[in-house]
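Problem statement: downstream parser choked on a complex file, so we are re-checking the raw output for the manganese (II) ion run. The parser issue turned out to be on our end (a line-ending mismatch), but while we're here, posting the original submission so the record is complete.
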Amino acid sequence: MEQLLGAHTSTNGGVSAAVDLAEKLGFTAIQIFTKNNNRWYSKDLSEKEVELFKSKLRGSHIKFVVAHDSYLINLCAKEPEMLNKSRDSFLDELKRCELLGIPHLNFHPGAHMGQGEEEGIKLIAESLNIAHTKTPGFKVTSMLEATAGQGSAIGYKFEHLRKIIDLVDDKKRMTVCIDTAHIFAAGYDIKNTVTYKKVISEFDTIIGLERLKCIHMNDSKKDLGSKVDRHEHIGKGFIGIEGFTNIMNDQKIKHIPKILETPKGKEQLEDIVNLNILKGLIK
Ligand code: ZN
Ligand code: MN
Ligand code: MN
């Protein structure tokens, strides 16, 4: 089987327009926002748009879709008003995914804003339990993204993600996404071939590779352990060609969809360049 590869794709013109653009660019996996990612509220998806998205997807070469939630959401926000707003918004995001038939909602666990990591982890799990209880029978999973650990962000250690999953009641609704730039900045050396293998086996021991459903393929503008989240084109950053060669040839994660979140213009032609580099690394 060929590896599923693609990029975060613009929904300018509606969610179904993303399918058209991705198909034109030759993607087999995509990530989208189902609403404006910098706003709290968006109007509901129309029945027509939902059907158009689904039918276009069926007729395309795209075999995997993931949604990324809004950047405003913080499931462990300190202020009660912000926490409630985040929880409402997350619930809306889950509903949008379910309506569109999107199997995973990727999100950053949260930023504890000085409350401490333990408290943050508890609040995130509580937020997820509330969301899951309000959406019984939903197929969409809550996909925890590993973070760089910038500011007070939780999720820069695999142990953080494990603790959240442990506190979530409905564990079959929990999946995980590795972002290469994030984990590298967090201190996981995936550039070196020997330490790369250790990182993946550590992930498997702590979280379990069966929960890994997506990988964000980004090079990093910042060095190992910097805890700064800055994406770079493949091969142009500190992870470099060596790191991505490790990933593209790892049989254990060959079946995991890989999605670029690298800098791009409106037409996303940069994505084609980056994907061709990745494909060229497969031995
Ligand atoms: Zn993200
Ligand atoms: Mn990411
Ligand atoms: Mn990032």
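For whoever reads this later: The first strand starts at residue 5 and ends at 8.
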